[in-house]
Inverse folding.
């Protein structure tokens, strides 16, 4: 476990988050620059296990809501973290002890590093997804029965909203409208927990995992990533088609990759809803949510986010196993293929398409 | 000033609110039934002047947001007032001392009587409009520079939202999205104030005014209303056309009245955006917001709300002077004809069309 994130390793960490982002969670470039600026100005961020906090310490899971396609044009003010913490502290009448990524994947694993740095708060070595997912209830806290309420939202203008939805469905609905009114993205915090609950309701050590993936990527490229994350190459080739639609606060689309070299003659298509959800070949599913499907640059191994995929890119598509919690019946109900309207049943990446 | 609202006078009060509603503020029928049930169960509601409260007592202006056309199909749960007060008390960490109508007009002047009854809270003899207006910043608190934030919203399902918008424009935008996610209407509280501020930032004695109008209406019909409220008959005739559109959370339209009797050959059309905003005849404005334009039943004198206007009704259209505060430059900027996209300048009802 890293004891802190600092300027030396933040970029590696961010590239690891991008791999775990499965195309989503927001592009890492702008959050990385914002985090670097905050680390330079305020010093390193301590990374801690929830066991290091008192049982009743308040932990706030945070992240960005909305369409990643908007994130690369509409930047954060940098003050959202403070506003979210202030709103939570007003509600609970006690201080926030640490921040945690709601989802470790993509920019959402990186954005909060700047908030931790500026607020002097530690970062919990865990998250609620172990990857990225498009909807707010697709997290381990939901599986564990933790209420999403109260939830807190802040936009880059300084508007702050606290919501107390009656259930996860209304949490998603209300949050999605706040995304819309804010212009496509908004910072949010939900499923606030005490540290005792964090220990059982999240996926541990995912900050460490992201950093390990980033280090392996820098050292050994795609081979390094697979050595740390598990899984396999699904195809290497060229992006020959990208269908793209930003609707209802989501980035949707289909990416088609035509194999080259040993994969010549193969065509793999990837269904996207913020994240890469299903990879299929000749109508056969070869990898499927909740397992991770990440498109990386065939040369550098760096993950390419949904909104940066474009025609002609030389890519490798990776399929990697998700955290065990997603492979339980409840996990598959929340984040399996049927939840997104695709045919099931889910087949683990270790067996799919073989 | 009435010392309390009870079952004997609540219907008269509600009919007075309907006259002040200028077609909007929501239909009074359902709120009246809900208020009657609450008064029967919990006893009368004390009506007090803000002077009767300690300077720092917390007063919560409340009302419904959204399209009145939806209010007559989607009912309140009755619990919204409690949820709004709880949210405000959590924010301010002190008890709500009294409720005030954000707008006295229509159902919004009546709805909160049931909340006062159930919560044992007094009702302030004042409001923020002296009538009804379609948007949240069209209130005297806004003129007085009182912040709309924090604002509180609750729907009939139990979803509760607290917002802290940066200004009145964002308050309106965020509230309008909460109206939409809630299905067209939502209960809200904004511009929370201490009692000292209420004394200078509201229109006093409007609960008394509504009751006086309702009593005069019962006694002397339209003549009684005009004797209390001032103003004059604009036309008496038949509704010959109603254009209606519910869009963006508003009820919009045009009502056309063809004169009968002494008004034969006259045609008056009324532009509506939740409220009746402009009355014109042969292209000439004969009454105009912020003055009050209310369509009443030609027989009984009872006000007809926007969503109940229909072809064939025999009606009298009344034009009545607004509160003085609306006739100031700031008042006209906020609620004059130009604000709604109509040609100005505003001409007082005492002179318009004569």
């Amino acid at each position: 476990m890293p004891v802190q994130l600092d300027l030396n390793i933040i970029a590696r960490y961010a590239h690891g988050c991008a791999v775990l982002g499965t195309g989503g969670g927001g592009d890492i470039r702008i959050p990385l620059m914002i985090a670097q600026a905050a680390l330079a100005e305020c010093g390193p961020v301590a990374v801690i296990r929830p066991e290091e906090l008192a049982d009743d310490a308040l932990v706030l899971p945070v992240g960005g809501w909305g369409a990643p396609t908007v994130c690369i044009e509409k930047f954060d003010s940098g003050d959202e973290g403070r506003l979210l913490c202030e709103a939570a502290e007003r509600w609970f009448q006690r201080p926030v002890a640490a921040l945690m990524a709601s989802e470790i994947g993509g920019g959402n694993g990186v954005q909060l590093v700047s908030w931790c740095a500026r607020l002097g708060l530690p970062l919990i070595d865990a998250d609620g997804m172990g990857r990225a997912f498009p909807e707010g209830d697709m997290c381990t806290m939901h599986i564990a029965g933790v209420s999403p309420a109260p939830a807190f939202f802040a936009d880059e203008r300084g508007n702050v909203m606290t919501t107390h939805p009656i259930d996860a469905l209304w949490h998603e609905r209300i949050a999605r409208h706040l995304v819309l009114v804010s212009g496509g993205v908004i910072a949010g915090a939900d499923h606030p927990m005490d540290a005792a609950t964090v220990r059982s309701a999240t996926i541990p050590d995912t900050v460490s995992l992201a950093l390990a993936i980033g280090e392996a990527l820098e050292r050994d490229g795609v081979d390094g990533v697979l050595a740390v994350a598990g899984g396999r190459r699904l195809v290497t080739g060229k992006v020959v088609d990208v269908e793209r639609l930003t609707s209802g606060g989501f980035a949707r689309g289909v990416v088609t990759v035509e194999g080259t070299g040993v994969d010549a003659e193969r065509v793999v298509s990837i269904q996207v809803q913020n994240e890469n959800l299903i990879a299929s070949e000749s109508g056969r599913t070869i990898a499927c949510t909740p397992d991770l499907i990440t498109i990386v640059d065939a040369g550098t191994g760096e993950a390419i986010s949904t909104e940066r995929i474009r025609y002609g890119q030389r890519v490798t598509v990776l399929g990697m196993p998700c955290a065990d919690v997603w492979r339980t019946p409840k996990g598959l109900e929340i984040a399996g293929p049927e939840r997104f309207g695709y045919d099931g049943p889910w087949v683990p990446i270790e067996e799919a398409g073989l």
Summary: Chain B has two domains: 4-207, 229-340. The domain at 4-207 of chain B is CATH 3.40.1610.10 (CV3147-like fold).
